Amino acid sequence: MKILLLASVFILISCNDGASSNKSTPQVLDDGVSDNSISCFDYCSDEIATSLRPEDSGYSYLSFPNFGHLGVGRCRGHALVTQKLSQLAYFSTTDGCDLSDIKCIASYKAGINNVLNFVPHHFSGFKSIYDLSSVPELKTFLRNKVASISHRYRAGTGNITITAHDDPKLNIFYELEKRILNADLPYVGIKGILSGAHALLLYDIGTAGKYDVLCARDPNIVLERAENCESYLYQEDGNIYYKRFDRAPDLMTKFLLTSDEDIRSSRYVESNRLNCESIAKAKKLCR
């Protein structure tokens, strides 16, 4: 496999503002005719695994915004915790345990740890990431997880398969669009006068006036309502702009897709594929 790895860069994102009912059986495949002639590896293709990713409820964001820790904002940690929960956490409102029970809270914390270690998990008793992270004990737990992820990390340039444009920023923009269409939730590093050094998650493609836009989930924003592409990235005349819902468009002076995002994306597919194999085998849909 050919790996595109350019010179390693050291990245610093300061992120300034300028119980038993909760077990790991996250997804259920539709019942079908038992077919022991096909291997579970072949049954659970990458396409099937991708289709099993959690649906976006509109509330796929943490109930608390990015915050300062040791004098530095934690937008990277906030975005990565959100990304993992969005890609690997499943929710249902039935069969939740008693939140006043220490063992219940401990079981949900264990589920969060599963997800942060790339293991899909089913959170019974909750509707969404926002709902889960609104429980005081779990909010504190998640804040600590966010704070534990360093804003300093080393990575190379991501694998950019779009090469039609002379300007690398445009190739990255359309690479991100491609990944969103592939059910990814890409993490992108940005920098602008209004945004400062920051990180975004991109979750959908939309339109705003005459522009085709990449809908952005911003760690600094908690809408307390279902997201509907209020904030977004767009390109005009070769320049990339970030339009936060409450600000003027911000020209991006840095716009980065890094190799660590490629690694995470592959791990999400693999995690969901292994989960698919486990469930399909239990349902005797494969061997």
Give a brief outline of the structure:
The chain is of the alpha+beta class and 287 residues long. The protein has helices at 40-43, 46-51, 75-88, 102-116, 129-132, 136-148, 168-181, 259-282, and strands at 9-12, 68-69, 72-73, 89-92, 121-124, 152-155, 187-192, 196-208, 211-217, 232-236, 239-243, 250-256.
Describe the structure.
The structure is a single chain. By secondary structure, the protein is α+β, with helices and mostly antiparallel strands. Among the domains are: 62-156, no CATH class; 157-257. 33% of the residues lie in helices and 22% in strands. It is built from 8 helices and 12 strands. The protein has helices spanning 40-43, 46-51, 75-88, 102-116, 129-132, 136-148, 168-181, 259-282, and strands at residues 9-12, 68-69, 72-73, 89-92, 121-124, 152-155, 187-192, 196-208, 211-217, 232-236, 239-243, 250-256. Strands 7-8-9-10-11-12 form a 6-stranded antiparallel barrel. A two-stranded antiparallel sheet has the order 1-6. Strands 2-3 form a two-stranded antiparallel sheet. Helix 3 (75-88) crosses helix 6 and helix 4 (102-116) packs parallel to helix 6 (136-148). It is globular, with a radius of gyration of 20 Å. The two termini are 29 Å apart. Mean pLDDT is 87; it is low at 1-13 and 18-28.
